[in-house]
Amino acid sequence: MNKKSTTLLIAVLLLGLGLGVLLARQTGLAQGPATPAAAHGHAEGDHDEEEQGEHGHEESGEGHEEEGAIRLSQEQIDLAGIELAAAEPRQLQRSLSLPGEIRFDEDRTAHMVPRAAGVVESVAVVLGQQVKAGDLLAVIASPQISEQRSELAASQRRLELARSTYQREKDLWQEGISAEQDYLQARQALQEAEIAQANARQKISALSGSTVLAGGNRYELRAPFAGQIVEKHLVPGEVVNETSAAFTLSDLSKVWATFGVAPRDLGKVRAGMQVSIVASELGEQVAGTISHVGSLLGEQTRTATVRVTLDNPRGAWRPGLFVAVQVPSEHVPTALSVPDQSIQTLEERPTVFVRTADGFVAQAVELGTSANGFVEIRKGLQAGQQVAAAGSFVLKSELGKASAEHVH
Question: How far apart, in whole angstroms, are the C-alpha atoms of residue 242 and residue 137?
Answer without folding.
Answer: 16
